[in-house]
Amino acid sequence: MEKEPLLSQLVKRCIRSRDLRQARKLHAQIVATNSRYFLNLLIDMYGKCGGVDEARRVFAAVAPQSNVVTWNVMLTAYAQNGHLEDAKSHFDAMPRRNVLTWNTMLSAAFSMPRGTAAGAAAVFARMPQRTAVSWNAMASAYSQYGHFAEAKNTLDRAPERDRVSGLMPAWDGIPWAAMIGLCGEAGRVESAKSLFDAMPERDVFPWGALIQAHALDQDLEQARRAFDRMPQHNLQSCTSMITAFAQGRDLEQAQRVFDGMGEHDVVSRTSLI
To answer: Sorted alphabetically, which PROSITE patterns does this protein's record hold (predicted)?
Structure first.
C-alpha cells in the first residue's frame, strides 16, 4: 500500500510521455497490487501508449471481475487508437453502459479515419440520455463534415439543462467556437466565416477561433481585421494573433500585440520565439 502513490505517479508519467516500453516495465508491478483501480489504470496506460494488444490482453484477464469502468477504459483504448470495428464489437458486447460509454462511442463514430456524421447520428439517436458533451460532440460531427445546418439545428434542439448532472451546459460560444475551429483546421475558411456570421451572439471564444482559422489560411489581413473588431481580447485571441504574425514573419506586429497584453503565459511567450 505504501508504494501505491509512487506507482500511481510512475503510471501517470508514463501516460504523459506515451512510452510503451516503460508501460511494459510497469506491468508486473501494477498486476501485483491486485487492485481494480490499478488494473483499470494499466489498460488505460497501454491504450494511451498505443499498446492496444497489451490492453486487450489485460482486459481479457480481468474481464470476469470487471465493471462498467473497466469496459469503458477498454472502449476508450480502442477509440483512441482508431480501432473502430473493435470499438463497435466491444460496445455491443458490454453488459452495462453509462453516459460515458455512449459519449465515447459517439466521438469514435465520427473522429476515426472511416468515421462519418451519419455513423455518429446513429449512435446519438440510440442514446438513452444525453449530456452537454453529447450534444456538443454531435454538433461538432456535423460541422466537421460540412453539414452546418444540421450542426446548428442540433445546438438549437439542445435542452436548457444537462439532464444527467443538472448543470447548465455552455451553449454560448464554446460549441460554436469548436465548429469554427474544425472548419479552420480543414481549410474551410468560408464555412468558418458563415458559421461565425450565423451566431446570434458572440463571446471571445468564436472570435479566437475565427482568428485562428484565418491564421491557418495564412491570411494575416483577415486575421488582423477580426482581431481589431473584437469587443474585448483575451489570452487565447492575443496568442492566436501573435502566432499568426510570427508565422507570417511580421515580428514587429507580433511584438506589438504581445506588449499590449495584460497578461502572458508560456504559450504566448513561446509564440514569439
So the answer is: PPR
